[in-house]
Amino acid sequence: MLDEDKRLTLIVSLLHTVRTGVRDDVVTMFCKRIATLHKKGRDQLEALREAHRAESERLLGVFGNVLNGVREATTPAEGDVVGPQPDNSGRDPAGNGLRIR
């Protein structure tokens, strides 16, 4: 009977050791798989960031061109007069028909 108990204890111990080793191997495989997925995700994120950065730079360039066009359109050319001109006609600026001397 003692030998049978000892034999059963050794078998249970062996099973426990094997199960622990298998569990460790499965966890190691899982960690490697997750690390691979994480790396792929990081690479994809970097690619998306680069594409977004390029698109943002392109849009900023277009916006800069629009601003330059607006600036050119609103800037008076040489010889153009900006603002109200003095009235040298001698008439009343209020439009009353009176002549100012």
Estimated radius of gyration: 43 Å
Structural class: mainly alpha
String of helices and strands = H
Number of strands: 0
Strand content: under 5%
Specify the helix fraction band: over 70%
Number of helices: 1
Which residues sit in consecutive blocks of at least 5 with pLDDT less than 50?
Answer: none
State the major sheet.
none
> Roughly what is the average pLDDT, rounded to an integer?
87
Overall morphology: rod-shaped
Distance between the termini: 140 Å
Q: Can you walk me through this structure?
A:
The chain is mainly alpha-helical and 101 residues long. The protein is 72% helix and 0% strand. The protein contains 1 helix and no strands. It has one helix spanning 2-74. The protein starts with a helix and ends in a 27-residue tail after the last helix. The mean pLDDT is 87.
Give a concise summary.
The chain is built from 1 helix and no strands. By secondary structure, it is mainly α.
Please specify the SSE layout and strand pairing.
Layout: H1 2-74
List keywords for this structure.
single chain, 101 residues, mainly alpha
